[in-house]
Design brief:
Layout: H1 10-22, E1 30-35, E2 38-43, H2 48-68, E3 79-80, E4 93-94, E5 97-98, E6 100-101
Protein name: Reverse transcriptase domain-containing protein
Pfam families: RVT_1 (PF00078)
Domain Reverse transcriptase: 1-99
Length: 106
Amino acid sequence: MGCPQGSCSGPTLWNLVENEILQETEPENTALQEFADDFVIVSHAPTKMKIENQIHDAIEIFINWANKIKLQISTDKTQYIFFSKLTRPPRFRWQGETIQRKHTIK
């Protein structure tokens, strides 16, 4: 799946495709945002276990959507940033692979 790079209709076609995932029901205290062709999952919770569960559920919803439209996700480019006073941040996985934690995201 894809649109010709630089095509006039490419962004419009992509908006139609990505609109489906943005309409999905999200886990509690979790939101999915889209910027051009990048996505971000934003979530907050009072405990490490709760945030891990919320993000896990959001990732599963996203993976199901990506598989449905045959969208391949680069796990090398998948990262997370975590803002908290926890000394041990949660860990997240994408289809069995650990998602890299970063202190800044470009």
